[in-house]
Amino acid sequence: MSTMGDGTRAVRAGLPEPEQFEPPLPGPVFAAHFHLSGEPVGPYTYGRETNPTWTHLERAIGELEAPGEEVGTTVFASGMAAITAVLLSQVRSGDAVVLPDDGYQALPLVREQLAAYGVEVRTAPTGGDAQLALLTGAKLLWLESPSNPGLDVCDIRRLVEAAHAAGALVAVDNTLATPIGQRPLELGADFSVASDTKGMTGHGDILFGHVTCRDPRLAADVRRWRKVVGAIPGPMEAWLAHRSLSTLHLRIDRQCTNALALAEALAKRAEVTGLRYPGLPTDPSYAVATRQMRRFGSVVSFELADRDTADRFLTALRLVDDATSFGGVRSTAERRGRWGGDAVAEGFIRFSVGVEDPEDLLADVQQALDAAVR
Ligand SMILES: Cc1ncc(COP(=O)(O)O)c(C=O)c1O
How many Å apart are CA 232 and CA 30, to the nearest integer? Predict the structure, then answer.
């Protein structure tokens, strides 16, 4: 699998060896327990611990995260379940962790929880390398690159080297990029973590998450944590997630092409400011993004003059749903300030680009901008 192209790998990822009269991707196994006599040893004992549908999917995600390598992947009921599994399985009272101060808006909740458990939380913005000054004595460095919703990018390899030299582990939230856009383990990270609710599954119909690690001890910690808290995905969701992976490259390639076209079109509009897309050559993150990313993702962010202009823009869009989340096949956009959790301007828009025909999408955005500023 290591020498194959991304598309070939995606369509075959995690499939069992062909067996006469068996389906290529076995259906979801709905079981709370499995027949088990004698010693209670696996592979399948009880449904909170393991499930064959997870096994196929975990293999698939591992092949995408680290082609040709033996890695350990653990799937979860959501991205937050995956994030907290890493943090809470690794840190202890008295430890210090470094978190982004501009990452996903639930991170401040995690931060509060860690502080309540006696963990020292230090924060730094994603871009600009301020993390380097915070690593002494830290147990774990958490990165989110590109960051949501600001789309800043950090130099993962450089920060990993510094963190490891200081004795800290590194986790990367790779949600925006997906493993075919960026492979954190190849860049040296210890954990690649994602909300697969987004681009990875791509249809806006399931919540899902995963953690992949190279070190079997760390993988075992994460797996044990899932067993302790029971943050397990349903077999149907796991099967849908696996089925979605076979179109990952098609969806993401089209979304990236559309996202770049949208960013280029927005760059020409006088009423648009603060435009960010890591794949746009004029973006401040472009140089570092091109070094570490293989695809730049489906999200474009920008600002309109104020809240009313942004709301008029969203209302005027015909082909783009006003909805949160991102990475799906149907374009969505939202005024991010409505949630109150991100440090963004009132007119800030996070635009998730889908797989529509680019001419239709761009025409819709142009007419909505015209309507918004009229
Ligand atoms: C970057 C990032 N990480 C994690 C999450 C949390 O994922 P979930 O909603 O699947 O729990 C999100 C959700 O938007 C996200 O954007």
Answer: 13
Pocket lining: 148 vs ligand 1, CB cutoff 6 Å: yes
N- to C-terminal Cα distance for the chain? 54
Residue nearest to atom 16 of ligand 1 (CA): 104
Nearest CA, atom 9, ligand 1: 79
Ligand 1 pocket check for 155: Cβ under 6 Å = no
Say if residue 1's pLDDT is above 70.
no
The whole-angstrom separation of Cα 298 and Cα 371 is 24
CATH number of 249-373: 3.90.1150.10
The answer to whether 261 touches 254, Cβ cutoff 8 Å, is no
Q: Is the CB–ligand 1 distance for residue 332 below 6 Å? A: no
**Mean pLDDT calculated for residue range 313-328:** 97
Residue pLDDT, tens place only, 63-100: 999 999 999 999 999 999 999 999 999 999 999 999 99
Distance of alpha carbon 354 from alpha carbon 198, whole angstroms: 11
What is residue 330's DSSP assignment?
S
Closest ligand 1 atom to the C-alpha of 196? 10
For the CA of 209, the closest atom of ligand 1 is 10
Per CATH, is 6-245 categorized as 3.40.640.10?
yes
Instruction: Outline which parts of the chain fall under CATH 3.90.1150.10.
Output: 249-373
Question: 104 CB under 6 A from ligand 1?
Answer: yes
Instruction: In the chain, list all ranges with CATH 3.40.640.10.
Output: 6-245
Residue among 78, 175, 196 whose CB has most ligand 1 atoms within 8 A, to mutate: 175
Condensed to tens digits (0 to 9), the pLDDT of residues 142-181 reads 999 999 999 999 999 999 999 999 999 999 999 999 999 9
Is 199 touching ligand 1 by the criterion CB < 6 Å?
Answer: no
207 lines ligand 1 (CB under 6 A): yes
Q: Do 337 and 236 form a contact (C-beta atoms < 8 A)? A: no
Return the C-alpha torsion angle 212, 213, 217, 218, nearest 10: -80
DSSP bridge partners of 209: 76, 195
209 in contact with ligand 1, CB cutoff 6 A = yes
pTM of the model: 0.98
Geometric angle at alpha carbon 145, from 144 and 147, rounded to 5°: 75
